[in-house]
Every structure is written in C-alpha cells, then in structure tokens.
Protein 1
Amino acid sequence: MTDRILSRSVEDYLKAIYGLCESGDAASTTAIAEALDIQPASVTGMVKRLAESGLLEHVPYRGVRLTKLGGREALRVLRRHRILETYLCERLGYAWDDVHSEAERLEHAASDELIEKMAAALEFPRHDPHGAPIPTVGGYIESTDVSTLADAMPGAHVRIRAVRDEDSADLRSMAAEGLVPGARVRVAESQHVAGSVEIRLGSEVRSRAVQGDLARQIYVVPDEG
C-alpha cells in the first residue's frame, strides 16, 4: 500500500466502524451516526465515498464493513490513539479518565514517526491504560473477548481485561470502586438489586452492587487463577 494522507473525518469514520464491527456484525448507518454523534444523512454520503475509495464494503441490508485496506488504516489510527494515551499516562502524569479526549485531539496530528518514538520510549507496550490491546506496526491486534461484566453468570470468577474509555465520569467511578484492568471479581450467586450486578472484588467479604450501565462498560475474561 502506498502511503496516503487521510482526513480527520475519514480517520474518525474508520475507527468508529472498526469498533462497531469488532463483534462480527456489520455497522449500520444509524450505529455509525450514533458513534460519531452526527446525523444519519451525513453518514450516507461519506460511506459512499469510503466505499468508492476501497475502504469499505457494503453488506446487503445490514450496513458496511471495512475492507482489508480500511482495516489497516483503522488500526493505524487506533495504534496512534492508544500509544498517545499510554504516553500521556505514564510519562506526563495524566489520569486515566483524562487521556481519551486528549488523545482524540492528538491522534490526527501526530506523525507515525513520533508515535514510534513514543512507543520505543515506553518499551513497546501491548495494552493502553484502559486495558485495550495496542495494534502492532504491522497491523496485528490481539483478539479481545467482548463479554462484559453485565453478561457474567452468577457465581462466575472473572478478571477485568479492559474498560471503555469514552466517558470520564464512568472511568472515575471505576477507579473509585477498584474496577480496573487486572482486578479479580466474583459475581454473586444471587442478584438482589434489579438492573445491577452484585459482585465481590478481590478478597472482599462483603458484596457490592455495580450499576448495569457501568457493568456494560467493563470487559471481562474467565479468571483461571
């Protein structure tokens, strides 16, 4: 692939569509509009242009997916974003609830050369501060389990693998509750509060209720320890 310069808008579309398709489903116009906080009518024209550029392909009656080329470009943006988040946290002292919006602004301006120097200074991290995998330069990204804490079965032992990073207030709530990547959680056998997930964190004896909206922002894997 020859190097290309994509506009900020195109990069935002590709990154959003990548996230929407991670579960295997195609991305609908409505979902893309919601992810980017724009009107569906605006999405239609851009989707057509991206498809004509070979970055998207239409899935009949379902929406769009990224082509191989579109996927590579999306992963380049994700790599920039997640390296920036990590650098801001580890080297500049940003709190994990502040770095997402800052990285959103910087990811379009930072050159690949700068990002790679940051990655080298960080000794090539594999995950960002929120636990999300960082794509490699070659376009490989570690597979992720899309199961959330809200999906966990009663009695399950799970480990927090990653959290969504878009909402600063949610991140502050997670940090205050100790619901951070690496934390071990046991889901209570009995759930008493409707709309919440009752858990025990680490070696805690008493259980606590995590609101359902927050639990859906927390990605977990089985805890084999």
Note: Helices lie at 8-21, 29-36, 40-52, 68-90, 99-106, 112-121, 168-177, 212-215.
Protein 2
Amino acid sequence: MTSDGQTTEELLQEIESLKRLNKELLDTFHETERLEFSWSGNLGQWFWDFRRNEVIFNPMKAGALGYTEEELPERVPFEFFTDKVHPDDYDRVMDHMRAHLYGELPVWEVKYRIKAKDGSWKVYQDRGKVTERSEEGKPLFLKGIVFDVTEEERERELLKENNLTLKSKMKIDSLTSLYTRSVMLFELGKSVNKAKNFEQALSVILLRVDNQTTYEAEFGTIVSEEILKEIGHVIKKVVGEQYLAGRSRETVFMVILNDKSAKEAFEVAEAIRKEVADTFFTIPRKVTISAAVSTFEPNQTISELTEGTREKLMNAQRQGGNVTVL
C-alpha cells in the first residue's frame, strides 16, 4: 500500500490509465498536426527526453522511411534515427547537435540523408531546440520539427545540372562545336597574363576559309555555314584537348597555344591546313584555308597581338591563300 492509501494494484491501474490517456492525447495531437500543419513535406514534431534517451514523434517521420508503428520499438531511442544517417553526413549532423546541446548554437538545424527501410535515401530537414536544462546547464528535454525535403532536393539537383548544361552550351558555338568568341577572348587574356607573369611562351593561330564570301554568294548561306561547321570539326580533330580552339570572328578561327613556340604553333597550323585540303566538302570546289601564326611579345597588348596576326592572315589570302605564314 502506498503512503496515500492506494494498493499496488490500484497504483498500477492508475499508471495504465494515465498511459492510455497519454496515448490518446498524443494520437489526437498527431492528427491535429496533420490537419493544421499540412505543409509540403511536414513530418510533424518530435520530443526527446534526453535523460531517458526516448524520442516521441509523429508516426509520419518513421512512415516516410517505410516503417509501420508495429515495427518500431516500444521506446524509440535517439539512435534509431541517427544510425540511419548517411555516413558522409553523420559527423556533420552529430557535430551540429553537440554544438547545440553544449549551448554553442541557439538551435539545431541541419539537412541530412537518411536511409529508408527499402535501402533508398531520403533527405530530412530537421530543426530542434533544448527547451529545458538542469541547474548545471545540462540538456533535459528537446523538441523540434522535421520535414521530408527529398523531392525538393531532387528538383534542386536537376536544376543545378540543367544550369551547368546551359552554361556549357553557352560556351560552345552551336555551328562549329568550338568555343565561342567571348570564351576565346577571356582565355586569351588569361594566357597573356600567365605568359607575362611566368615568362612563358604563348602563340596564337588565326585561320580563315579562302574565298568564303564567294561560296556564300554562289551556294547560299546554308552551304557556307556547312563549310564552317566541317572546318570546325577538322580543327577540333587536329588540336584535340591540347589547345583551346574557337571562333574569333564570323569566319575566322583561333587556336591558343600556351607555352608553345612559333615553330610549334606553325606545325599545328600546317596540320590543320593540310587536313582541310584533304577533306571532302559537299560543293564542286576544293576548299582551302589560310593560317597566320604569332608569338606574344611581353610589351604587346592583346589587341596588338590579335590585330597583327589578323593582318598576316589577310596578306596570306590576298596572295592566293592555302598557306600558313609566320
């Protein structure tokens, strides 16, 4: 018998009654939570008795991972969820939690991947706070709320991939599959600075189709563009990944050769010129190109380098074309 006159049996019955009442109140709370806070991904609130290491939570939190209420232990410890956190996220999540428990952060807010029952990964956004501490400042009780943001993360990653693809496409000329003029000018500026600062060689090749205006007048714009497209493929084939190649102007191509002498650049230009001469084009004419090679001088500006090379290229074409000049 207890001090207030209750028998042990009566005390046990009262405890059971309180447990049933607590369960009914909790179920009602969870149902209300579903109705009142039906935000996208909301999995409800959680409560953590730190001393007993017992977590009380809305069944939606475990349900989103594929677990039924019957599959959960009678008392769910904190580790039931943390043990399922992705290995690459675990230390970060635990560090954040400890920082809050020790009073270094005002709240615990973290996003992490968590393993579902079927082996797939969900993404949870969790936010919580210590609501009660001991006189010594040790945590006693925490509460928080968790969201399933898996779909939002997938959409964000897809958007990121699409942005990267779009950015990549913006760098590539759609006709020739080489870099655009803006990219080439940017890269040339970087190469010039590198050549100045590290006293390295830098050579530039400009190439242009001989008689391009004649082809356009005789066969039309579409055929003319097909010629440029094919030459772009030839240039890409010859230079590969070794050098940067792109369009300098509408019908002029540029190749930037870092740390290469004029002689080495001349050999590359000649290889391109010869490959073009041996390429079959869908017009009843032999298509050729001319090329000009220049090496950067420390006292030059970028404009002087490119304009000087362009003058060489124009002179080569005035003399009949199908030639590489230094």
Note: The domain at 37-155 is CATH 3.30.450.20 (Beta-Lactamase).
Protein 3
Amino acid sequence: METVNGYRLILGYIGYIMMLAGVIILLPLLVLISYPDDAFYANCFIVPGVLTVFAGYLMTSLIRNKERGRLHKGQDILIVLLTWIMTILAGAAPYYLSRQYSVTRAIFESASGFTTTGLTVTPVDIAPHIFLMYRSMTLFFGGVGLILIVTSIISEVYGMQLYTAEGHLDRLMPNLAASARTVLVIYSGFIFIGVLLYVWGGMSWFDAVNYSMSAVSTGGFATHSDSIAHFNSRFIEGVTIILMLIGGTNFNLLLITLRGNFKALIKHCETRFSFWLYLAAVPLLTLLLYRDRITDFWDSAHMALFQCVSAVTTTGLDTSHTLDKWPTAQLILMMMLMLVGGAAGSTAGGIKQFRLYIITRRLVNSFRERLAHKRIVFPNTVNIYGKNTRMDDNITDICLYTVLYIAVCLLGAFAFSLYNQYNFTQCIFDFTAALTSGGYSNGVVGPASPRGILWISVVAMFLGRLEIYVVIIGILRIFSDIRAKITKMKY
C-alpha cells in the first residue's frame, strides 16, 4: 500500500476540515424556515458551501484508504495554520457573494467570526437574519476549535499533535475522540441553557440563540447595534455575565466542576487570579465611571462589573452605549484587562491568566528571596486542577511569549498610527482589541475603516487566535521547505 507523506499528507488532513467548513457555510440555510424572505440570499451559501465540501472531499482522496506517513516536526502546526487560512477564505465567500461586502470586508468579517473577535463591518440593525446567524455560527465553530471538531478522524498520535497545536492544552478523557466529544457537549450544553434563560428573560428565540453563542464563545457579535444594552434588562445582563465567565474558563476545569469537585475550582490558580483581578478592577472602573458622571454610582457599579467581565473574557459585548466616548483612563484599564485575557484552554483570548499568574508568582518569590535574612529559594508551585505542580521549567518560555505579545501590540498600534486621523489611545486600544479577540472598538476599526486598517486587524486577529508562535513556526516551516526544495533541485 502506498504511504503518503509531506504536503500530500498535509493537504489530505486539511481536506477533512474543508468539508467541515462547507457544512458550516450551509448550516445558516436552516434560518430560512423561520425567515423565508431571506431566500434571496440562499445561493450566497449554497454555492460556496457545496464547492467547499466537494473541494475538501477531493483533498481527502490524497490520504483516503492509504497508509499515512509520519508528521515531521512543524508539520502539525503547518496543518493548523493552513486550515485556519483556508477556512477563513472559504467563510468569506457568502459575504462577498451578497454584494454588500468588498473582498477586504468579507475576509475581515469571516476572520473576526472564526477567531471569535467580534469586530464587525456589518450594519447589524438592517442585516438579513441569515447573515446574522451565519456570523454567530462562525463564532461557535471558531471558539470550540476547527481541529477539535474533526480530530477523531485523525489517528490518536497525530490528532493529539494537532489538538495541542491549535491551543488545546488538556485531554478531558482517556482518548482524544472522547475529549473532543466531551468539549462539544459541554460547550453546546451551556449554549442551550443560555438560550432558555434568554428566552425566559424576554429575548426572541433568534436573538437568544445568537447572543448565547456569542457569549459562551466569548465572540461578541450582536444582533443589535447597541449590543446587550438594547434589552435594558438586568436579568439578561446577569445571564450574559455568567455565560461569558463560563466561556472564559478552562474546559477541563469546567468538567471537573460539573463532576462535583468544587474544591479544585476554588483552589485552581486561575480562579484565584481572576478573583483578585475582578476585586481590583471592578471597584476601580466603578469609581472612574462615577467620577466622570457617565452614570450614577449603582449604575456605574453594574456597568463596571459587566464591562470588566466582558473585557477579561475578551467577549466584547457592551452595555455602556458610549464606549467610544469614554475618557482615556477607563479605556487604558479596559485595554489592560483584555491583555490579561481568559483562562488557558478556554475560548477567550489575551495573554492568558495562567501565564500572568506564573509571572506574578515568580516575581513575588524573587522579592521574598531578596528580603530573606538567609539564602532561601522559594519553589514556584501552582495549583492546577487541585494539585500543586512545579512550573520552574516553563517560566522562560512564558516570559518570552508575554514580551513578544506586548511587542506585537506596540507594533500594531504603530501601524494603525500611520493613518494620521487616529490618536495613540485609539490605535493601541483597537489593535489590542483585535489581537486579544476583545472585540471592542474606539473608532479605528469599523465599517468606515480604510482597507489597510482592516488587513492589519485580520493579521492581528489571526495571530491572537493561534497564539503568535503557531503562525511564526508555520511560516518558518513553509520557507524551510521551499529552501530545501530549491537546494534539492540545484543538486
């Protein structure tokens, strides 16, 4: 039997994901049952959906019923990188075919959805229902992870390589396929509960499905231009806060908690880190909002709680009405919260709480060692899922990644600032929102943005979703393979 290796193997694996991408494009057609007037846009989904499924099927023929070779170093990351690029491009087709989006804006909207960023160029108050649902579905599949959904198709060894390369850190069950199913069940279950609660709170079924997917995926797409503020309901805002917190929590920790181990949840390092983070940020934002008379004190407190949770979980849903008019101090605080981000292994973006907790612990231990009367080395142990684990070996990589992340933020803000109509606060805030998948905008990124701003944002969203390293390693792998091919041709 023929053994498939190299790029034939890579393209074969990507074919399965492309078939999934085609199905994602076709799924919004179900909306036509309730909104038949949107049938005018049916071909915008049928044509690219069918073609993407067919193209994916042809690609899988490269490895179907054949002996599959080994994935060499870096090829797993290359599969993830190419998968996301091809899915975003395929996902842009319905927008472009509607004739309401240019190529740039179609790719931007697709990238924002699949990376669960939530920045948008869509006029949501007048957009057809089929497109609003499609946006939310891209959040759903992008949040849970494209690779995870089809990972059971791939062998256990190579599937785990891709599963890890996409950013999933833990197996929830003894084997990979069971882990994938468990994540999907947890993810879908919370969305279903969110839908029921939203309907109970007064939302229509259509809005409830969209906002529940948006909140749990920490994506932030809304069906109204004033986001959650449209409903003027404390109950709906409370449900949204809970759903965002769930989306920003590690899947493994959610499973442990659902099994009744609340002690592991309370002792987990990220739980403690987020508790102190909210304890500091919410009162501070409350005082800043009240100081500037944006609202009265209790409204300021409620708004601060919602906005802090939305920023930390990098969701981007909003109750403020006037975020683009907030003073600089509030915007900087929100930006810092987006940089912190959610838990590792969650749908949220940002640097991630786990990394910053490790850095904070190491910094505190460093001061304690210097203040001690005698030479003492404090062990850098953290509580993960109820167990103390030494993290000394990971500190260097964590610090390097954090520095790289902040450097990318500054470079991106500089790129935005080349368009002279924006000030630095707007530039750093909006680029941070794109990189962290925060979804907020202070006026730089939006429907009226220049094409260059949108393309820079697409790159930022892509880097943030795949955590920078994956993109860099994938690109380096491609160049390495091209160079090796050229060298081989010379000799």
Note: Confidence is low (pLDDT under 50) at residues 155-163, 169-174.
Protein 4
Amino acid sequence: MARVECVDLQRVFSLRDGGEEVAVDSISVTIEEGEFTTVVGPSGCGKTTFLRMIAGLETPTSGEIRFDGEPVTDISPQGRELSMVFQSIALFPFRTVRSNIEYGLKYADVPTQEVRERVEEMASMVGIEELLDKKPPQLSGGQQQRAALARALIRDPEVFLLDEPLSDLDAKLKTEMRTELKELHQQFPKTTIYVTHDQQEAMTLSDSVIVLNDGRIMQKAPPEKVYSAPENTFVAQFIGSPTINMFEATLESGALVADALQRAVPIAEELQARIREKADGGLQLGVRPNDLTRTEDGAEAFLEGSVKVFEQMGDETILHLILEGTDREIRVSVPPSVIPEQGDRFQFTFDHGDAHLFDRETGEAITNGLDTPKPPA
C-alpha cells in the first residue's frame, strides 16, 4: 500500500482555437495508505483527468505526484506499482477468463505455477472460479466486471484505481457490485481511488470523499461530513438527494430573516458575532428535505406551502411544495404513509442544529448548525 500525494497538480489542454482549458486546477491532496477515496463531481469537472495523471496515462502541466514520499510524476504507468479498472471493461473477448486474469501478470516475473495459483485464488475471491474456462461474451456484465477486478488485483498493486467501473451496469447489479467492492477492500486494503459521478456510490463505498468542481477540490472528508458539514454551497447542493433547500436571508435584530420563511430564526449572540465576522453581504440558509418536520402548530412553523406534485419512493414520499405567498418551490421528505392531494397544505419546522448557513457572495460555510457558533468541519 502507498500514500498518494498530489502537490499543486494542474493539467491544461490547448484548444484548436488557440485557447486553453484547465481540466485540473492546482490540486493538492493526500490519500492515506489503505484509504478508499472516491472522487465525485459533475460531468467535465476533471475527475477522470485527475485519475489518469495519478495512473501515469496523462502528463501534468505542472505539479508533482508522490507515492510514499517518492516522486513518480515522470515514471511510466508500468513502473508505478498500480492497477486500473476502466469504465469499459476491456477484456480480451477471444481469450478465456483465466487468460484474461493471467494477463495482469504479463510483465511480472512470476513462475507459471504461481500464476495459476494466484489466478484461481483471485477468481475465488471475486466469485468467478467456475467461469475460468469461459470467454467474456459468455458472461453477464457483472461477471465481466469481476473478471476485470481480478485481473487488476492479481498484480498486488500498491495503488488501485477505478474509473466509473459500475456505470454500465443496471441498478440492481450496481448495488450488488458496490457491496462486493466494499468486501474486496476489506480483504485487500489497498490504497484505492475510485472515480464516479454517482453520489450514492461515493457515499456508500468510501472512507473519504473528494468533491470536485471545475478542476478544484471543494471538500475532502468522510461521507458523513460532506453531507452533514458541507464547506460551501456547491457541496451542500451537490451531495444529497433531493437537493438541499436554500433560502436568501439577512441578519436582523438577532435573528435570520428570509422572505420564504413564516417567521424569523432566532440565534445566539455568539453566532451573530461569527456571522458579522465572516459575511460581508447577504446569507444563504440551507435546510435538507429530510430535516424538515411536519407540524400543525402555526406558531412553530417556519414554512407553509401547498402540494404541487409528490413522488412516492417506497421508503419516503417527496413533496414538492409551493411556499405560501411566493412562487418558490421546495422539497420535503415525509413518511411513505403520507399520500397527499394536489393543493393540500402543510406546515414544517426544523431543528436549529440541522440548518446550515453560508456567505451568499463567496458560498463558504459560516456554520453547520445554528444552535452553536461552530465552524465547518
């Protein structure tokens, strides 16, 4: 296993019109030995370019990559002691599964008998030991992906890279493969960097999540932290489904005031001081849909609205509400037993500790939770 460090890593592409496109913008990050880190972000944010530079398949414009403190920026992919699984499984269709897995050791000086033993061991680990004599076209998508994982892991790499390996699988198979990947990492605790656009994969698989946008790291933290303690509005809005509800707010007479809210949100003096220190302009108040609680006490309610549409998800129902006196729509998660009619009115409140406050101009978090003046994690 290796500790992976990226220092001021940048990749700039030259465009045909003479311009430039910055795909990765001065990234500095450390991925600890044995850590399973997922890189997530919108399409075009630089995820795959970042991974390919670590793999040695893309040359950085500037910056340095280190494995265990040793620079590897100028070392070929074969010399970096890593393995990679791509979105396209890329098995040889005319070779058996056994031969495909053996290919992972093609450039290693390993005796023939040991190769056979390691192939059978890896096939058993990923549950395809009975398929070794079949060819990829005879396998299901999940079986092919297991074969690709075995081919990569048989090298016993220091660093294991995966570029959206589950994106072509159906929803049920994705769920099964996520579990298997988690189990594989427990068996082979390699330093793993996993790129995906699917935040559910990022949240369920990882020890740590890197959220990228426009080639820059927005936050690196454990999954629970990027959800409960986002460092900026981008992370708050990108992580979580349905997305967080955001309200324009101002600090007035010791309370947060927003046109969309039925009443002001009183806050402690210590937090008022922090707000004045951190925010020069307006504020944004964020409340996640599942942190809103239904109430029938009008004096307690912060939000009131009528149902526009609703979505039954099985374990919850998502209400799309038009707020009272506005054309503003928010989303609220309620129990699946709630089956409303269009136009039904609901009132909601929220716990101060579940709300998030951001500087409207910079997007930076001022506090996660309004009950105490705590900075973002």
Note: The first strand starts at residue 4 and ends at 14.
